[in-house]
Amino acid sequence: MIALLQGNIQSTGLDWAVITVNGVGFKASMPTHNLNNMHIGQEVTVYTHLYVREDVLALFAFLDEDELNFFKLLITVSGLGPKLALALLSQKNLTSLKLAIAAGDTKSLSTISGIGKKTAERLCLELKDKVGGLALSVNTGHTNLQDEVMDALISLGYSTSEAAQAISNLTLEQRQKDIEEQISAVLKYMGNA
Predict the structure, then answer these.
(1) Phi, psi dihedral angles at 30 (to 5 degrees)
(2) pTM of the model
(3) Residue 153 to residues 98, 105, 145: CA-CA distances in angstroms?
(4) Half-sphere exposure (CA, 13 Å, Cβ side) for 137?
């Protein structure tokens, strides 16, 4: 219905922004990291999802189309509404979230406000197969180097989910190292896990 908005930021709140398009202001709920990168008067293009239920009509917006698509996937999980899906995307970056689900890392997911153990388990159960391929795609934010690390781990006999879990535990500093050092760090993690 409303696929995207292109306009200026009129105002922002904790989890929303009003975007003015040709004199019409659209209030859209957004992840906090998107809002932190915006300022009043800034021209933006956001990808949107209009959530319609019997008593709810809400617009959700994202600066990144991959985030929008993942949001749509999250709200297919039983018991997970759009507000909780937005909270997930606000508290954990997209790559980490995909990797945690692909790896079945319920412990990591349970640290997110509003996500208990049962919801984390349901997320992993319902989305693991759908996210497995997404977590490994270039669009998830993995660098080519991290894709090579993934391939190396799989060739060593580790499963995709084990490799994804281990890579998600690399620190930012470790991710910036060369492939040998990344593989070494991942293998060290797997030896301690």
Answers:
(1) -140, 155
(2) 0.69
(3) 18, 18, 12
(4) 10
Q: Is 39 helix (H, G, I), strand (E, B) or coil?
A: coil
CB-CB contact of 69 with 75 (8 Å): no
Residues facing 16 on adjacent strands:
29
Which tokens sit at 168? 């998600």
Residue 118 corresponds to which tokens in the numbers above? 């049962």
DSSP label at residue 40: T
Question: Are the C-beta atoms of residues 193 and 166 closer than 8 Å to each other?
Answer: yes
pLDDT of res. 178: 76
d(CA 163, CA 167): 6
> What letter does residue 125 receive in the DSSP assignment?
H
